[in-house]
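FORM 7B: Structural annotation worksheet

SECTION A. Query
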Amino acid sequence: MKKFLGNLVLAAVSLVVCVVLAELATRMIDRLPLFAADLPPVGGTEGSDTTANHLGNLPKADGATPSLYASDPPPLPNRTKAPQEWIDLEKAIVSGTAKGGAKTFTQRFEDWDMFKAWNSVFVGDDVCKHWYLKGAPGQLWVYDPPDGKSRPVFRFLPNVTTPRGLVTNELGWRGPPVQAARQPKTVRIVFVGASTTAEVHGYPYSGPEYIQNWLNRWAAARRLDVRFEVLNAGRESLQSADIAAVVKTEVAPLRPDLVVYYEGGNELDLSTVVKNVPKGVPQPASGLARWLREAAKHSALARRLEAITDGGEWPKPDYQLTWPAGVDEKDPDLARPDLPVNLSRILHNLDSIREDVTKAGGELAVSSFSWLAKDGLQLDANRHKPLVEGLNVRLYPYRYRDLERMTVFENRVFEKYAKEHKLPFIDVAGLMPHDPELFSDAFHNTPAGVKLRAWIVFLQLVPLIEKKLVLGEWPKQPAEMGVAQAPFAVAPRKITFDCTNAPDVARPAD
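SECTION B. Predicted structure
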């Protein structure tokens, strides 16, 4: 008996030693901290560059060669090092040691929101009464909106490089320097939207930067006496009403030739067609998958095992999707006030954008919006963890098939809107591959995905530009361009406050 127990203990100790050694070896191979109790989050925004698998399946355009796609924009001449004071402040916000903000508040103030200029009307007379900004670390930059209205709620600080790597120009837009006054023989294109236009601040380039590089190289190769200026007026979290305000107060004064609208995620709310949205805690289907999901926070071996578990859709509660009576899903009446997922509101704001762009002498182009959501989508439970959690946690309790149905409907509405108003329609969703390696969540892309999506837009801009050049509509003559004006005459100012003891404030309804 003693011999049996001794062998049992020896086997148990040997097993533990082997598991520990395997865990350490796996951490070394995966470049993870060797002795940390908690491991860094699984997944990320890099992904693998699988674009080579898809380039051959895209439409062709004259001069759009593989070597052109391979070329990247030149380094930003306005990129500098973020001030050490800002770097220290960002670290303090992330660690929770920053002072001056409310100790208890509904939503934690994010570090990237520190280095923005907030609309003074949106901020209000007392920062400490603001549901979100009272969590800021005792200071903010604010600007006075030229129209005295609360939208857009913020703009980026002009001429800065932030600790997150965002580089802005004189306008407070992402990208290289730009002058408000347009140069002769220049075509000015402005992209508007939210985070999928601005992109992650740390990405090396956004889509407009790629497109500007490609268009100018394309024009040079064809010996065209024209220069392209492609600007990025996007910023994260904006809804269509904010984008309309950006166009009216910031974009239209620059008198662009073309404004490209790309947004379709922030207002796509399925609760507009689902009454009594079920509550619950999203969880993977099997007990083993749930256990591995938790264990992966602490063990590299668990991460490896999680990667081979089922990456299918998590269980969702039953609910009823109720389509508005009389709305034709295949051919919707755009004049209806009850289009699902806030589309009636979005179209109203598109009308405002179109009117302002037209008054400024430009043209509006509308894009379809690319989502990864697809019925039957299979993901690697470990490698694609941000995607899995984005689709099953952030968008809970909505089923993949319903997300796909509503995004397809949204893009059908965008396409019909463009057709009815004789606007260029850029079909991004129809050409963007449903490749999880190109997505960081349901609709944001990895750096490789950003570049491929920009190429898809570029391929559809080329024939439009060729037509405009042949007709002599672009580039405009100086007399046609009008006088472009910088949208902001006064630089943002800094305010200080102390909201340490401020009470919590509920977020108002949109």
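SECTION C. Observations
Residues 217 and 223 are 10 Å apart (CA to CA). The first helix runs from residue 2 to 29.

SECTION D. Sign-off
Analyst initials: ____
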